[in-house]
Amino acid sequence: YNTITAECTADSICNVKKDLTLTLCAPESLTYDGTEKSAYIDDNYNKAAFPDNYTIEYFNGDKKLSSVPVGAGDYTAKIKVGNAVASVDFTVAKAKLTVTSEGYSGTYDGAAHGITVDTGDSDAVIYYAEEELTKDNYMTAGTTEDLTFTDAGKYTVYFYAVSDNYDPVPASGSNTVSIAKSEATTSAKPTAIADLKFSGEEQVLVTPGSTKDGDLVYAVSDSKEQAPDDKEYSEDIPKGKEIGTYFIWFKVKGDKNHFDTEPECIEAVIGESRSALGDVNNDGIINVTDITKIAAHVKGKKLLKNDEIIRADINKDGKITVTDITKVAAHVKGKKLIKG
């Protein structure tokens, strides 16, 4: 059906006896390469029998194309001479396409990471999923958006390549994304509060630190050489009440993307109160009011509290007695001033 034979409808044609057949030929290169696949008319025909310029039309099934086909597929080329039509069918095969993939391995950095699938300059579309993809499920189970991960962990990413013009090899496969935890850091380290003095009440010992990589945890120990066990740490800010040195250990308890840091130790000290002995109510003056408060304590009428006891224990024997009242009274009368 790819030929048209001239009929003797005029003397000028019937006097010619050779090459009265017009032949339409399929393209010679029939593998996709990005160029037009043009059918052609064999030059061995009689120009007198076929004097016109003939246009080749192309069809994809019943659909007439507006231009010469380029992509892979099944086509029909046609020419028409009068009422006669010559046609030739041809198929442009898909080109072979080598597909390669590369995984990712690195340390957590807060960025998203995925696998890389290389299909060169082809028109291939890649589908991704966390389950194996096949020709039967890639459209329902896969996505053409990059499948990426940010958190530390190991992930398997499957891919499936499809193309109108290429035959991907391999069409499917998988690779891994491996993100390791990174070392936690502190935005600010905790520091010991200076010049703490005994008050009889619990006092915060440190200015808290901060971190974006987990939680800062603390533990108070009696050793600055040996870090406490993990179970002894908490997020509570350390406090102390008694006079003395406190060894405060801290570390970052890493989140899902960070390792714990090594414990560090700082020292906080609660010193003796600077309040004057005898000035029980701490108003800056030793007077009858202070004597009255000590006496009420000794008689059991109104007990002194915490730092008041320290300031009332004039002889520092650990007890509040009549002796302390006598010493304060002597100070008030100017007979024997209290030292310290």
From TrEMBL:
<feature type="domain" description="Dockerin">
    <location>
        <begin position="273"/>
        <end position="340"/>
    </location>
</feature>
<dbReference type="InterPro" id="IPR016134">
    <property type="entry name" value="Dockerin_dom"/>
</dbReference>
<dbReference type="GO" id="GO:0000272">
    <property type="term" value="P:polysaccharide catabolic process"/>
</dbReference>
<protein>
    <recommendedName>
        <fullName>Dockerin domain-containing protein</fullName>
    </recommendedName>
</protein>
<dbReference type="GO" id="GO:0004553">
    <property type="term" value="F:hydrolase activity, hydrolyzing O-glycosyl compounds"/>
</dbReference>
<dbReference type="InterPro" id="IPR036439">
    <property type="entry name" value="Dockerin_dom_sf"/>
</dbReference>
<dbReference type="InterPro" id="IPR018247">
    <property type="entry name" value="EF_Hand_1_Ca_BS"/>
</dbReference>
<dbReference type="InterPro" id="IPR002105">
    <property type="entry name" value="Dockerin_1_rpt"/>
</dbReference>
<dbReference type="Pfam" id="PF00404">
    <property type="entry name" value="Dockerin_1"/>
</dbReference>
